[in-house]
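Teaching note: in complex prediction, the entire set of molecules is handled at once rather than each chain in isolation. The prompt given to students was simply: 'Predict the structure of this complex.' The entities are:
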Amino acid sequence: MQARDAELGAAVARAQEGDEVAFAAAYRIVQPGLLGYLRGIVGDDAEDVASDAWLEIARDLGRFRGDGAGFRGWTATIARHRALDHLRRLKVRPRATALEQDLLELPGAYNTHDQALESLSTQDALRMVAGLPRDQAEAVLLRVVVGLDGPAAARVLGKRPGAVRTAAHRGLKRLAQQLGVGGVTDEGPRTLGESG
Amino acid sequence: MGERHGHGGSSDRRVAHPGEAGRPDLGELLASAVRAETVDAESEARAVAAFRTARDEGALAARTRRRDDWRPREQRRAIRSLKAMCAVLLASLTLGGVAVAAIGSASDEDGDDQGRATARPSRSVPDRPAAESLPGESPTLATPDPSGRGRASAHPTQAQDTVAHCRAYDSVKDRGKALNSTAWQRLVTAAGGEDKVAAYCAEQLADAPRNGNGNGAGTGNTKQPGATQGPASPATASPTKPAKSNGKP
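The expected output is the structure of the full assembly:
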């Protein structure tokens, strides 16, 4: 990820001088994580919202200052604003999301780790993330899927780093329990129902 | 294609060999599941086209807003404090320039506009008698520029103030209380320090008679300050009073 950030930073710097090939390179590095994050927030509309976000990113690229890691944070902030705009529009014209409907059909705890890993599809993972409280879901997605560090994720969300760290930790722990796998490195006291 | 999802690629390897680290890392698991596998070529083309348009419109030169600055915090803070320092420096230079320019323009006015300049000191510097001499003088002096006259009697120009203060300064300077009044403070500030007042006043007083000599009334004018010094000297008995009436237009 860090080597990738250096590459991204160089691409962004060249794009800011007008190099469109470099801009395309930056797009290819950032887009998978950005799209994953948006899927977690707006579901199937993620592609459209991402397109909107990239129009803004392309337009404002000259304003950006920072390195590769900073560019991830900057683009995530823009994408998040577009996603929140999108959700506000949906509120005016409500529509049941597929993610919420399928929540009850979550895959149960797996028998073995291998089984969990092999069968965790994108859809399953997104359902699980969508089942988290909003702040936890966003914190997990920004940290894990977009690849931001704690302070950057906090800046994107407009919250204190401590609050975001806690939210990400709780979210991951909950997901781990659902999946029946370990992997949350920072082991806190495991109590049920402490979410939120 | 494998390159297109760098992070996903490494996770795929982990997924293939979950046993190597004992437990699979949930973060990597999630990342590989949620991150987009491939980048849609059409979306990429649209983004690049938008970039090209923005670039050709000169958008790359846009100014950085605070929310666009993602440099590491220390760097950001250092730059911000540097900017603040520059702003303070610039502001002080600007204000200093304005002050100097104000002094310059006031004395210019004396030189250029002699009709007004000579009329004013005689009426405005001696505070009370001005009201009496006004009706007598106004027919001749007021007709060309009534508004100017009105302003002149109400607000003596700063240069004339300065000259008047300079004349009175010698007799007042040893009384600490008098020097604390607003008018004296202003004089000291304009001079750039208490020890520079003498030099500053010498310069101002040297300018004043030169203006007066320009026309016939000038002789009256050069006398008039002499008369002003008369009232000013008694004024030392109650030093704050004339200072107030002159200093607060």
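Point out the following to students. Chain A has two domains: 1-95, 102-196. Confidence is low (pLDDT under 50) at residues 96-106, 185-196 of chain A.
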